[in-house]
Amino acid sequence: MTELSVKGLKTGDIREISKALTLIENDPIKAKEIINALTDCDYDVIGLTGSPGAGKSTLTDRLASIYSEKEKVGIIAVDPSSPFTGGAFLGDRIRMKRASRNDNVYIRSMASRGKLGGLSPSIYDAVELLGRCGFRKILVETVGAGQSETDISNLADIVLLVLAPGLGDEIQMLKAGIMEIGDIYVVNKMDVEGAFRLKSRIEAILEFSKNQKDVILTDAVKGTNLEELVQLVEKELRFMKESGKINEKREKRRRFKKLNTIFQELKDLPDEALDKLASELQNFMGG
Fold it and tell me: Best label site of 79, 147, 165, 269, fewest CB within 10 Å?
């Protein structure tokens, strides 16, 4: 690992961490080498997903500021990929003004690499790298569309499903099975008309489906109920750790990381090799 200083990564050197994340995004083999050089440790992964325009970036910014008072916080903002470069647009990062000025918070925008709303395979490695570099809370914010809602549940220990009134798609999301992946439901922009009605509707759906999950109203811009949201997150994390459910979630993350690595390797195969493999799989499955 001549390009990087392992000591610098272990001590949280931001330049070394940034270089390592760039390598992770572009070289899966190098990613494994980098991560294996660092000691594994305990960290919490909090995912934020939901409707575009619900205020996820501002909410992430606020949560990071609160957590950073006691520990180092890493933020991975998943941006849509540029159709020309494949790189992130950096839109979410621009909106995180508090976190960007906080020495105890590290922000990284990562491209979805053409998967609208989905999480690129390198994000699993990026989360693990930040955890091994001493970040005890890692917030992963998705672009909030398409595949992200299911992808984030495979990555995060706990998922905040962020909704807001007046966006026109919140009820469609609830009907589409997205409810299942949320651990805590956040109705943001509580000062907008319809917020309390939306909260009541979510609670009714949860009661009907016999899901005992918390629903909270917030205003990320004003900071209303953000401390209360952190308390709910910590309560859920404590329950998961005491019950052993956190181990199931983290084993699931390891499995999906392996699957993502396999898919990445398949993607890089020549067309002829892919066709041959597809034919063999079809024959194996009796197709």
Answer: 269
- Residue 87 and residue 121: Cα distance in Å, rounded? 14
- In sign, the C-alpha dihedral spanning 150, 152, 155, 161 is negative
Q: Report how far apart the first and last C-alpha atoms of the chain are (Å, whole number).
A: 45
Q: What is the pTM of this model?
A: 0.87
Sign of CA dihedral 14, 15, 19, 25: positive
Integer angstrom CA distances of residue 1 from 10, 127, 134: 14, 20, 20
Q: Are 218 and 231 in contact (CB under 8 A)?
A: no
* Range from 78-92, 122-136, 196-210 that averages highest in pLDDT: 122-136
Q: Which two tokens stand for residue 277?
A: 């493999």
What is the tens place of the pLDDT at every residue in 223-249? Answer: 999 999 999 999 999 999 999 999 999
Looking only at the bridges linking them, the beta strands covering 214-217 and 184-187 are parallel
CA distances from 157 to 4, 221, 233, 255, 258 (A): 29, 25, 10, 14, 17
What count of other Cβ atoms lies within 10 Å of the Cβ of residue 114? 12
Q: Which domains does the chain have, with CATH numbers?
A: 1-39 (no CATH), 40-251 (3.40.50.300)
Q: Residue 130: helix, strand or coil by DSSP?
A: helix
Query: Residue 265 and residue 271: Cα distance in Å, rounded?
Result: 13
Contacts of residue 211, defined as CB under 8 A and 6 or more positions apart, other chains included, come to: 179
What token pair was written down for 120? 């690129």
- Name the CA dihedral angle for 98, 100, 105, 110, rounded to a multiple of 10 degrees: 120
Distant-in-sequence, close-in-space partners of 126: CB < 8 Å, separation ≥ 6: 21, 24, 25, 76, 108, 110
